[in-house]
Fold this protein.
Amino acid sequence: MFTSSPFEPLPSTGEAPAYASPPLVRTPLPVPPAPGPDIASRRVGLPSRRDDAALADVLGHPAIWRRGSARAKAADALSTGFDALDAALPGGGWPCGALSEILVDADGNGECSLLLPALATLTAARRRVALVAPPYVPYAPALAAAGVDLAQLVHIDAAAPDTHWSAEQCLRAGCCGAVLNWLPRTDYRQLRRLQLAAETGGTIGFVFRPLTAARETSPAALRLKVVAGADGARVEILKCRGRFESAQAVRLSA
């Protein structure tokens, strides 16, 4: 056999073989730049300056609050007309662009009287107030005696299936100063839609619900429990955005 072994070297002819590879050229690798302050802080687990600025912007929003801070940033609010209640609320009144939930054990326990000073202020400024599906016909002489401008009141007699939709549209449109809605039965999803609509329209939303709903979670920015008494209504703050103390009761004079 004239076949050479593949492991035997070929005889040298004095010429470079056709398959010979060119000589290797060693190119030095580029040196990475020195790490800047942001990269260095990430390596040791520290927040960068950019992250600190972004976090400060988020925490500065009035809708964000942290437990343990001295006091939440004041948000837009409308005075309730009761000094004791204003002093107990972080913004000094009803939160604007948010939903306030009022829980009562029975109708006529002072829940409507609680809102009369604010409604008088809004209607005096020619801001429209919508009453969506109230359980009784509003008594015009009592409203006028409390200073409410009846020309700025809108009574929407909506059926039960349309109550949520009607209130949501009034809140979202931004054409009303306040929207009052009576909801004997509702759920978290529907309340969340009302809260978002109030934020979008910058409208004060009020929702009246039975006292048994206090056991349920709610996205409302403010939740109040109203109980009638011989010396006036007793208002208990169950939940308030920006307030860290436990539930507090406020006595309103008759």
Notes: The longest strand covers residues 98-104. The beta strands are 77-78, 94-95, 98-104, 128-132, 153-156, 176-182, 204-210, 222-227, 234-240, 248-251. The radius of gyration is 34 Å. The chain has a mean pLDDT of 80.
